[in-house]
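Batch manifest, entry 17 of 40.
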Amino acid sequence: MDISEVRRRFTALIERPHGEFRLAEGALLIAQEESPSLDVQAYLRRLDAMAEVIAARLGLDPRLVLDLWRWETCRVCPSRRT
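Output type: structure tokens
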């Protein structure tokens, strides 16, 4: 992927409203600037799969772990339900 395209995607990511920014995605986009062949979406899928395994092993709601893993606003936390 072209470096200017990576920077455009990163800029669009960090301009999202609070709670919609995936920290892992930002880190992967930065890494992609050094390694253009890095598949950001593939790594995000792997991270999501790991979060689901963690949730299952801990007996937690998978949505809670995925929200925390993605660095998003927690949709299922008792104190933050909307």
